[in-house]
Amino acid sequence: MGNKIFNIRMRAAKGGPHEKGGKHISGGEILANYEDIQKAVNDLVEKALTHSRGNPDFMQIQFEEVQMPVQFLAPLSITANHVLSVREGQQLAMQLLRKCGVPSPSIEKAYELIAQPKNVGMRGAMLLHVQSGERVDNRGEKGVRVSRMDWDAANFEKWAIRQEMPRSARVKEAITLATKVASHPEIVAELCWSDDPDYITGYVASEKIGYQRISKLKEFGDERGFRIFFVKDALNLDSYIHYLEKEPTLLYWEEDDEKRIN
After folding, report:
1. Strand, coil or helix: what is 230?
2. Which burial class, exposed, middle or buried, applies to 208 when counting CB atoms under 10 A from its CB (0-12, 13-18, 19+)?
């Protein structure tokens, strides 16, 4: 991608900026060479203006040169799980979290947090201690936003064809984020489903089980989305959040990448 890489980020809301109570509509980011910044900006603007959550009246786009060394990661191995109902999907998600090593009481506390009205509309992830189930990030409704990550489009398409996955930006972004999160030694598992009312698929991911895609984790029309990271040790929280938010990561797939599922 050349000698210099730039991080281009977008956030869009309706009813004013997020920090003034605006409803989150869309967000995204791209890592690109300088000559590709304009295309990246155009792609992010199109994403914001065509989102199913509504038409934004606030949008912010910024870019900056990446100063830190870029870490290259192979994408998590992927498994597609087809379920017949949201209930079956959520039961499978809980089963997969237990397989990752998350105790049942912590899973129950996570779902209690999900059900609380104050957590509806969170823009980032909640970090929960894997053993206690207590939230440890102290970020309120903002949560922790994973940033500075991308996957070369051509390389992603080769991967998607081989894996028989949709060649969509949504899938690309989800795998990229899940891979970055799972690569940190403090993470035990991630649970996520989108706030897009037209997208009901979600996932559980970790280094141990890979990216487990679940076809139904909410009902159509539901704008509530959640992202939860179960972490091992709250003592290293600042270091972990710095990695998620600041350290640049690029995915690269090769056909002979070893699968990482036990």
Report:
1. strand
2. middle
**Whole-angstrom Cα distance, residue 150 to residue 248?**
9
| Short-list 213, 181, 179, CA closest to 199 | 213
Residue that is last in its domain, among 19, 44, 67: 67
What span, in angstroms and rounded, lies between the C-alpha atoms of 242 and 144?
A: 10
Write the pLDDT tens digit of every residue in 205-230: 999 999 999 999 999 999 889 999 99
Cβ–Cβ < 8 Å for 1, 31: yes
| Gyration radius of the chain's alpha carbons | 18
For 140-165, what is each residue's pLDDT tens digit? 888 999 999 999 999 999 999 999 99
Choose among 125, 141, 104, 142: nearest CA to 184. Answer: 125
DSSP 63-126: EEE--SPPEEEPPPPEEEE--SSHHHHHHHHHHHHHHHT--HHHHHHHHHHHHSGGGTT-SSBE
pTM of the predicted model, to two decimals? 0.87
119 and 202 in a common domain? yes
In a domain, 259, yes or no: no
